[in-house]
Every structure is written in C-alpha cells, then in structure tokens.
User: Fold Deferrochelatase from Boudabousia tangfeifanii.
Amino acid sequence: MQTLTGKAAAYKISRRGMLLGTGAIAALGAALGGAGGFKAGHSYGVAKAQVEADVMQISYPIRGTNQPGILTPQQQQMHTAAYTITTDRKESLIRLLKQWTLAAERMMNGELIGQYKTFRDVPPDDTGEADGLGPAALTVTFGFGKTLFVTEDGKDRFGIKHKMPKELAEGIHRMAAEKLDPNHCDGDVVIQVCSEDPMVALHAIHNLTRIGFGTASLKWSQLGYGRTSSTSTAQKTPRNLFGFKDGTNNIKAQDPQSELNQHLWIQPGDTPSDWAVGGSYLCVRKIKQFMEVWDELVLSEQEAIIGRNKITGAPLSGGDEFTQPDFEKKGEDGKPLIPEDSHVAVVHPSHNSGARMLRRGYNYMEGNDKLGRLEGGLFFVAYVRNPQTNFVPVLANMVGDAMTEYLQHVASGLWIIPPGLKDGQDYVGQTLFE
Ligand SMILES: C=CC1=C(C)c2cc3[nH]c(cc4nc(cc5[nH]c(cc1n2)c(C)c5CCC(=O)O)C(CCC(=O)O)=C4C)c(C)c3C=C
Ligand SMILES: [Fe+2]
Assistant:
C-alpha cells in the first residue's frame, strides 16, 4: 500500500499555474452565459473552449478538516453509489478503505489509479475511460450507514457499535407521499462523486466499484446531471425540473464559521468519543416530480405553491432573489403574499425552530414510463450536523406542503460522514476504527 501525498492548497488548477478558486465556476457561467460580453463567432468559441479546458484542470485535495464534496462549489455532475460490505473481517474493511482513499486521492489529482499501460499481459489497474480528461473538479465523499455499525440482525461485526451516534440509529421515519424502493435505500457505505465532467464522475464510481469486488458489492447507484443548489455565493442559482430557481437560500461556504458549526459540522460532544468531529450527516431523498401535471398549472398557481417568483426567484412578498421572505406581509385580500402552505413557508427555518441545512441536490431523468410520462425528479441531498433536528422535522412538515401533491419520494438514505483526512492518517474514517 502506497502512502498518500496530500495537498496543502485548498484547490488548484494545474495547467499554467492559473488559480481560479471559487470564481472558476462563476467564470465558466459568465463566459458561457455571455455575461462577459463575448461576441458570437470565433472569439466566443475560443473563449468557451478555454474556459471548459480550465474547468477540466480544477483539482481539490482530499485532506483537510472536512471531506471534500460538501462545501466545495457544487459541480454539475453527480454519481452516487451505496455498497453492501460483504466481509465480516475488520482488517478487510480497513484494507478496502485504504485502497478507496488512495484511489480517490489519485483520481482527484487527475491521475490514473495504478499501472495502466505498462504491462500487456495483466488487466490494467485503472478502467481507463477518463484517461486524458484531467481532474475536472472531482470530489469523492465517503459516508457510513447504520448497518455498518450493526447489521439488520443485530450483529456488531466490526466492533464499532458503541461508536454509533443515536441520530444515525434513529434513521428517517416514514413520511407523506413516499413509496420507497428498499433496494434503492440506505447502504453500509455511500460514496458521493461529483465533477464538472460526466465521464470523470462515471469513471470514479467504476474504478471504486471494481476495487471493492469481493469486499463491497454495489447496492444501488444514482446519476445526477444539473446541480439544483449553489454552495458558494460565486455560483449562479440553477433551476429544478419545475423550472424554479433552486438553492437560493442555501448554506454557503461564505457563511460565518459559527453558522456552519451550528448547522453543518459535527461538534465536540455530538458523537461517542468524538470520532466524527468535523464530519456531517448526509440525508438523501430521491423524489419523482410529476412534471406533466405541474406543467399544466398556470404560472401564478406554480408560484403560489413554491412561494417565489418563477422568473426572478424573488419571494412573493417582494424584493429580489436574495431578499428574505416576509411571511407576515399581506395582500389586498388580507391573505399572506406567501401562502402558508407554500414550499418556502413550510420549510423555512423561521417555521422549523431555526433549523438550516446545506442542500446539494441534482436533477435526474431516467427515460419514461409506459404511458409516455417522463421519469425524472430531484435527487435531494442535504448535509447537516444533526439529522434529527435539522432534516427529519422539516421533511415531516412537508405533509402540509402544497408541492407534495406533485411529488413521490421513491428512495431514502442516511449516513454519517467522517471528518476530512488529517496528516498522518491514511484512510477516510480512520478515527472510527482506532
Ligand atoms: C426536507 C427538505 C426538503 C425537501 C425534501 C425539498 C424538496 C424540494 N424542493 C424543491 C424546490 C425548492 N426548494 C426551495 C427551498 C428550500 N427547500 C428546502 C428543503 C427541502 N426541499 C429548504 C430548507 C429550502 C430553503 C427555504 C428557505 O430558507 O427559504 C426552493 C426555493 C429557492 C431556494 O431557496 O432554494 C425551491 C424552488 C423541489 C422541487 C423539491 C422536490 C422535488
Ligand atoms: Fe425545497
């Protein structure tokens, strides 16, 4: 096993030593959106190609206080996979976590994960489909499910049950509008891969799954294309499949550290023996959106259901996209301008004991059903410090949400996210096993 090299810089663009930082994605948006004033034709084509090439060179480090892929500027592509650990031997699990960590670091650096072209008489270590593409802002984020700590029949196979936080053990209870497929829920280990390039994301899960053969078997996997949140103020707010701006009032990397500590990162005293300080919880809901029904609602109905203007994203109480909603403000008819059962009113922190979450979801589209209806929706992803205060009650409140009629929750999952890899550590989650 080779040791990890680590990276001191928060992130880098290797080619031409050009640092773009969180503005890189904004620069891409500005150039591609024409905001920078590029004229049509040759110069636009050259600029677009240049920005795309630069984005392919963005790389993030695996080492740090927190894992990458959470507060990292949200990338456009996602491939998330959940695995069943098929061994009962702790040493085999740790060996797998070391191999996964090393492979993740290599791929995040834009490197191949082992010998690829050298020996013609053995299968190459790397599956190869991202050769030459660059790191493309790849992040690999690991999480541990309840069943890694204790199996469904109560077995403590890795001797870590005493380190399972009660917030994970409680899970996510049954909710309104759900028809969950158990084969697509939870999992012993989850790996969330995000990138600006679809092939780079697919390649990472392909390689990691291959490394797991014999120790970890793929339970389910999910592709997401088109982010539905922003995690940095430098990013333009994207839209979801109902056509609304999504991710406006999200936790962002630029928020005060005190706010991030209160709502996002696990703090001392939160988990047994503090093994997960600097970690978080990953809460997932795969939500089918009934687009054909939604698309026939008149614009004002759609806006009343969300509580925001469809074009600008501003709250119906007025202002611009980033004005805070005023739930007291009434219209001429004496009713609140933002309906009480609108999505924004139901999930807003002011109606949920101040609870906030970092949303990091993706649109998905998986063909169509037998009646020709699109099979698509939102792969909802939220990171929180405590799922039982910051996620589950908000989700439960959606029973009174006017949008719920147009949704069906089809999958669900909860995992604890270990902290970032520290110097001297050689696998993600090491503090859990020591
Ligand atoms: C339990 C948490 C949430 C689920 C599930 C959820 C599903 C869901 N949301 C949209 C569309 C929008 N959501 C918006 C805001 C918003 N949503 C949640 C939580 C859940 N959404 C929160 C906490 C917030 C922020 C509320 C606030 O502080 O103002 C918005 C408005 C724009 C924004 O701020 O992002 C939209 C639009 C869909 C379509 C959906 C399920 C498919
Ligand atoms: Fe929402």
